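Lecture 7 notes: from sequence to structure.
We start with the chain below.
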Amino acid sequence: MWIIYALLSAVFASFTAILAKIGINNVNSNLATAIRTLVVLILSWGIVAFTGNIAGIKEITTKSWIFLCLSGIATGLSWLCYYRAIQIGEVSKVVPIDKLSLVITIVLAFLILQEKIELKTIIGGLLITAGTFVLIF
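Predicted structure tokens for the same chain:
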């Protein structure tokens, strides 16, 4: 089931880039990010309320709060940079660079989370990196 969600994530991420590029025309990139964030905020809390999961907020540990907040900061900074990049650059070049986050995540998962890294993962990461350079140059 996770594969379906991952594929849907990729599809929605693709639409995000295209729709944002159209919508950001003549709009400050930081303001555009704030508007996007507000929509995500309303949508997320609406889903939490609709599914009846709001009571679970009481069970979140301090450690989880800290890391979820840090993740939120990282997300916000990523979005601010992403929107500025697509505003001044070509989406077809910005998105491949943005997707280098996959390779960076693999490295960080190995270093921080101590996840095993297999040869096929290393080869895949190198191919993604090479592909990114092919697409942007």
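Points to note: The first helix runs from residue 2 to 23. Residues 99 and 132 are 8 Å apart (CA to CA).
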